[in-house]
Amino acid sequence: MSEQLLLVSLPSSAAPSGGDPQTQLDKWLAENLTIPHQEFAHFDIPSFKIGTLDNLVQQSEELAKYDGQLESIASKAADIINSLYDSENQIKAAKVIDNRYTSADYLKHFQWNSSKYRVDKSIGELVDLITKEVFSLDNDVRTSYNSYSTAKSNLSAVDRKQTGNLSVRSLHDVVKREHFVLESEYLRTVLVAVPKASTKEFLASYETLVPMVVPRSAGVIAEDSEYVLYNVTLFQKYVSQFVAKLRDHKWSPREFKYSDTLVADLRKEQAVASETERKLWGEVVRLSKAAYADIVKGWAHIKALRVFVESVLRYGLPPNFLTSIFVVPSGRLEKIEKILIEKFGYLGGNAFEKDTRGRLKGDSDLHEYGALVEADYKPFVLYVLPAV
């Protein structure tokens, strides 16, 4: 399972008293979630231009949609990189952001890029700018990868022609001009791959399979561990009948009309396919590495906008909230969410009421609230981020 991060936004008033709110919140989280304090980081979000409440609600819906789309695009970009390399070390080296960060480290060290995405623009303008950039990168990467995949498939098909026995493999590197009767109006050369166990039967009978087979014309062109490849000359009018008789005897006729140009082209085919595959691999590697970093950055910026909008809708104006991001220890996500709801559930109002002892109403295992813990809704802003 890939690494996950938890991003939580809480109103400043929710932080324990005793000092800087962000520091106190991180301290409480570290102690109560039993995660080392140094694992927590502040997800830096500036203050954006806020329009009307209706605008915020609409932007909340749009950001939820774009957040999911950009996360999926980032994941697909990572999958493409994974498919291009053979070793984990190569994959890790390719998925580096700003020459030093993994996606998880970038998210933990996130800072809004104000020079690229100016905060004097409206939220709608920023969303439009970021998403268009990411969608364009995604299209470029997919187009490049599809071209590479086609070239790779072509190379595999060419390589398959070079393998197998004489009954199936390409013959361009086996036959020569002298193996064929060429430029004859009446005669035609037929190639046939005969299992080694049947060669005596073939030599004894091929001349009588159909009329007008040139006597003693069968010659050995090549052989492998399973088959012997023969050429046989006969009159053109009996070729189709001869081929049918070969198949009846379980011998394999090989369709091959010799020409110097065809043989030369087939010999070039492997080299051309290999060179094309190598060239397109290099192109998609360069593009996917650069695009992956920019896609992850774009997704992180959309996430920041979503956290901001959701926090304003949840906690009100002026914007005054705290953000913490940290890696979730394996298998601990559900427990961590329950602890957070136990502490901050009051932010959800009556649905998360506490009793006189400060505990959520219901039993101590939160069975009554289990469905809420699993649902999308939380009494505060909380997102699980995969490290793509």
Automatic annotation (TrEMBL):
<dbReference type="InterPro" id="IPR004907">
    <property type="entry name" value="ATPase_V1-cplx_csu"/>
</dbReference>
<dbReference type="GO" id="GO:0046961">
    <property type="term" value="F:proton-transporting ATPase activity, rotational mechanism"/>
</dbReference>
<comment type="subunit">
    <text>V-ATPase is a heteromultimeric enzyme composed of a peripheral catalytic V1 complex (components A to H) attached to an integral membrane V0 proton pore complex.</text>
</comment>
<keyword id="KW-0375">Hydrogen ion transport</keyword>
<keyword id="KW-0406">Ion transport</keyword>
<comment type="function">
    <text>Subunit of the V1 complex of vacuolar(H+)-ATPase (V-ATPase), a multisubunit enzyme composed of a peripheral complex (V1) that hydrolyzes ATP and a membrane integral complex (V0) that translocates protons. V-ATPase is responsible for acidifying and maintaining the pH of intracellular compartments. Subunit C is necessary for the assembly of the catalytic sector of the enzyme and is likely to have a specific function in its catalytic activity. Reversibly leaves the enzyme after glucose depletion, causing the catalytic subcomplex V1 to detach from the V0 section.</text>
</comment>
<protein>
    <recommendedName>
        <fullName>V-type proton ATPase subunit C</fullName>
    </recommendedName>
</protein>
<comment type="similarity">
    <text>Belongs to the V-ATPase C subunit family.</text>
</comment>
<dbReference type="Pfam" id="PF03223">
    <property type="entry name" value="V-ATPase_C"/>
</dbReference>
<comment type="function">
    <text>Subunit of the V1 complex of vacuolar(H+)-ATPase (V-ATPase), a multisubunit enzyme composed of a peripheral complex (V1) that hydrolyzes ATP and a membrane integral complex (V0) that translocates protons. V-ATPase is responsible for acidifying and maintaining the pH of intracellular compartments and in some cell types, is targeted to the plasma membrane, where it is responsible for acidifying the extracellular environment. Subunit C is necessary for the assembly of the catalytic sector of the enzyme and is likely to have a specific function in its catalytic activity.</text>
</comment>
<dbReference type="InterPro" id="IPR036132">
    <property type="entry name" value="Vac_ATP_synth_c_sf"/>
</dbReference>
<dbReference type="GO" id="GO:0000221">
    <property type="term" value="C:vacuolar proton-transporting V-type ATPase, V1 domain"/>
</dbReference>
<keyword id="KW-0813">Transport</keyword>
